[in-house]
Structure formats: C-alpha cells, structure tokens
C-alpha cells in the first residue's frame, strides 16, 4: 500500500491559497475581458480566460489531493507562462500586457512564473513519502500533536 | 467610494494581517476572535459597496461598472474562504492563509480605489 501525503494540508494550504487567489484574479479578469472587449484581442483574452480556468483546476486538484490532475494543471501553467511570456516580448501587437501570463506574469509580481515551480516541488515532495511505514520519516511535524 | 472607508478597510486589513503574522511566528492556528475581525472587515466592505452603489445611482460618478463590481465581489469572497480553511486546518498554516487573505483584501482595496478613480 502506498500512501502519499495529501497535497492540500499543512504548507500545501498556502500553495492552494495562492493558487486560489490567482485563479480568482485570472478567471474574473478573463471573464471581464471576454465579456466586454473580446474583439480587441481575441487570442489574448481567450488565453487569459483559459489561464484562469487552469488555475482553478490546479487549485481544486491540489486542495482535494488529485495528484495527476494537479500535475497536468501545473505543467500546463509552466508551459503557458513561458510561451505567452516569450510571445508577449516578441510580438507586442498580438499580446497586450493584459493576461496573467504576459511578460512572464510581471503584472502579478511574477507569481505566475514562480508558482508552477513551487507546485512541482510540492507535488514531488508530497509524493515521495511512499509505502506505509513512517519509520524513515524525518519531518517532525508529522506525528507531533499540534497545540494551539 | 469614499476615502475614510477605504482607509478604514486598509487599516483593518493591516491589523488582521499583523495579528495573523504574529500567530504564524508563534506557531498557532487561527482563533475564532480573528475570524470575528475578518467579519468586521466584511461588514465594512458591504457598507462600502452600498455607498458606492448609491453614489453611482445618485451622483454623476463614472466608473467601468463590470470591472468595479467584479473586484467588489472578488474582494468579498477572499476572507470567507480563508475562514473556512481555518476550521479545516488546525495548524499554523491556517494563520499563513489568513495572513495572505488579509493582505490580498487590502491590495484589492487599493486596486478598487484605482478603478473608482479611473486611474
């Protein structure tokens, strides 16, 4: 029996929280852009909405410990932020600085660029502690009672 | 929107963030009293939304309505989610989440003001 640490507990909550906020920001922004000015830059605004949906998926996957879905979402983000970030630098006309991924997420404090790496690190870390026996477990907070 | 209420929201968010940060350092989970603090912020945000709605209906202030109300709704959602997590995660990480949430609400207030002033 293999047991992996749930992705949505402990430090994972911070990751889920940041993902959640970004999901909220990107989705709200994407809906607003698509609803009010889609014709201005259809590609950029649809990408904006897509980014929001991917963050939403990542948030839910991490929170509910759906590991493979989380992996997929996080990797899509990584590819997305690097691709769109590069394209936004090269071809300014097509990509106004108005998606979360433009300029490698500069408009959001580069959090969109850092987050996929944090996500990968966290998924790897939580995935490592396999096969039942916790004897080799070195993290002290695992069994320690939390006193409030 | 009016300046005193916006400043009040900013101060309250900073206070809650500071309170949560102290709990992070002290390795403590969120306590109920902090959630009441969050509830106070939510109440002020609702008052602010009503004031803004009245000013938009009665006065001649012009604002990008979809953008503005999108931010209003987003800002209202953040703290309740953090509060729900505080019940689920009884470790210091709930305090970290509350800290992030309080800072986010404060930042959204800043953005909201920019949108209101059409900056």
From TrEMBL, chain A:
Source taxon at top rank: Bacteria
Disordered as annotated region, ranges: 129-148
Record organism: Cellulomonas edaphi
Name of this chain's protein: Integral membrane protein
Acidic residues: compositionally biased ranges: 139-148
Keywords in alphabetical order: Membrane, Transmembrane, Transmembrane helix
Transmembrane intervals: 12-32, 44-62, 69-89, 101-123
UniProtKB/TrEMBL annotation, chain B:
Transmembrane segments: 36-59, 66-87, 93-113
Entry protein name: Integral membrane protein
Domain of life: Bacteria
Entry keyword set: Membrane, Transmembrane, Transmembrane helix
């Amino acid at each position: 029996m293999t047991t992996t640490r749930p992705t949505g507990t402990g430090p994972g909550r911070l990751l889920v929280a940041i993902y959640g906020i970004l999901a909220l920001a990107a989705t709200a922004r994407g809906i607003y852009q698509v609803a009010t000015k889609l014709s201005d830059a259809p590609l950029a605004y649809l990408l904006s909405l897509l980014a929001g949906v991917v963050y939403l998926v990542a948030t839910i996957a991490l929170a509910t410990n759906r590991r493979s879905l989380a992996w997929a979402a996080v990797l899509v983000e990584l590819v997305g932020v690097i691709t769109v970030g590069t394209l936004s630098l090269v071809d300014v006309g097509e990509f106004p600085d108005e998606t979360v991924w433009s300029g490698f997420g500069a408009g959001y404090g580069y959090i969109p660029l850092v987050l996929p790496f944090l996500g990968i690190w966290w998924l790897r870390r939580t995935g490592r502690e396999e096969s039942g026996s916790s004897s080799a477990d070195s993290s002290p907070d695992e069994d320690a009672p939390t006193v409030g | 929107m009016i300046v005193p209420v916006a400043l009040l929201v900013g101060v309250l968010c900073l206070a809650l963030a500071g309170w949560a940060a102290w709990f992070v350092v002290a390795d403590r989970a969120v306590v109920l009293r902090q959630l009441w603090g969050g509830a106070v912020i939510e109440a002020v945000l609702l008052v602010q939304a009503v004031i803004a709605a009245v000013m938009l209906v009665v006065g001649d202030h012009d604002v990008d309505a979809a953008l503005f109300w999108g931010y209003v709704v987003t800002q209202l959602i953040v703290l309740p989610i953090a509060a729900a997590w505080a019940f689920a995660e009884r470790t210091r990480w709930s305090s970290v989440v509350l800290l992030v949430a309080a800072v986010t609400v404060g930042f959204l207030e800043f953005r909201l003001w920019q949108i209101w002033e059409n900056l």
